[in-house]
Amino acid sequence: MPDATGPDQIFQRALTNGEIMLPRCDDCGAYHFFPRVLCPHCHGTAISWHPASGKGRVHTTTVVRQKPERGGDYNVCVVELEEGVRMMSRVEGIAPGDIVIDMAVTAFVGGAEGQPAVLFKPAEV
Amino acid sequence: MTTKLRGKSAIVGTGHAGFGEAHGLTAYDVMAQSALAALGDAGLKLSDVDGLFCTMMEDSMPALMAAEYLGIQPRFIDGTMTGGSSFVNYLTSATMALEAGLCDVALIVYGSNQRTASGRLVTASRPPAYEAPYNPRYPISAYAMAAARHMHEFGTTREQLADVAVAARAWAQHNPEAFERGPLSRADVLGARMVGDPLTVRDCCLVTDGGGAIVMVRADRARDFPKAPVYVLGSAAESSHRQISQMKDFTVTAARESGARAFAAAGVSPSDIQAVELYDAFTINTILFLEDLGFCAKGEGGAFVEGGRIAPGGVLPVNTNGGGLSCVHPGMYGIFTVIEAARQIRGDAPGIQLRDVDLALAHGNGGVLSSQVTAILGSQNTL
């Protein structure tokens, strides 16, 4: 397999290896998400990759209501990571309706739509 | 838009077609019927149109498809796609093009047959790559998460959200053009099927067919047409994100900036506005835009709309046609905010006609609270 070169490839390749890597700008030091070829904060182009702490909080959340025969209700949320970036995801291991704003969560690499994806579970207290 | 463009263009025709269910018609058929209705209203013909401002949900070159369908060869064309706000945004580009002499008759037009074609939102837009794996229901999950955050930060209640839908229905009940005119109570909204917490199906806009069109000319010839001209006094846009996960503050939209600049260009303030037409794709939208446009303070939108305060006979007339929640919502609603604002000023609103309206506001929203465009329209008296 050739080396990943583009930002999306680097992120997805890491996920395939079970790692969550986040892009950070070498110029201003701020993280960003989604991955891209420039820093959306200072517009610098020197981007390096760092393992995510995995610690986050639910910034906002909803339950997508769906009939049981079609798979039932599920969670969609936006999580803010300790690094200051937000991503859409879902929290697993808890009923969708019990997920609340500000809940502490921990990231893991799971599967969504047959692809590796960043998912979350309630943080251990 | 700056004060330099204040009152330089005017709406001299409005039209619509296919409201509700346009059986047997394509989206482009509905678009063309809307164009003919607006041109008829203005006493003009399709052959007079030399500026076309159009986007549709069907494909990626809709403006070209529309020009071809209409049998016109426009010398100025704008198909900028910012979602449902596009048509309010075209007020700015049409004014610029007219004022610069790049066209003489501007036609803004839209059509959709989403209800009879599929029964749900039709879109050529692809789900964003970093959101798609989590299967958000587009677009409701985004608005539901904005509502959840507003409730969390400001104590906004589901009852207050419901009251937005109840007020919209109360206006719609007087509008023979509106699709949903049956009674609707707060309890009906709260007890309706939950589709994306905290929003029930009654917190969501309709899924209808329909099209709308607007004809604009330079102000210097605006009085030569059958209907009283409605002037564009100010219009302004601000875009903050595309994907909901990228929205910086889920409780503050870029309407704060678009509104402030539109008001500055028009030289008026929120308290001057007599009719407020907002893009109410979901009940939370009305609350957010009333706050961000300056009709009430941030966080107070829930109390502002409570108990019929934006319904007929309330303190502020909002969405006087019934809005996207009860009148019509064919995928992109923005053009109907402008049409209703213009008709309130002209005095030929289809439902409740407010008395002596000189100033009205139309506000378009696109994407998932992504693109915000505000326009202030005025009568001859406001020039």
TrEMBL record, chain A:
> Start and end of every ChsH2 rubredoxin-like zinc ribbon domain?
14-46
Domain named ChsH2 C-terminal OB-fold: residues = 49-107
Name the domain of life this protein comes from: Bacteria
Which Pfam families does the record associate with it?
A: OB_ChsH2_C, zf-ChsH2
Please report the name of this protein according to its UniProt entry: DUF35 domain-containing protein
Origin species, per record, is Tritonibacter horizontis
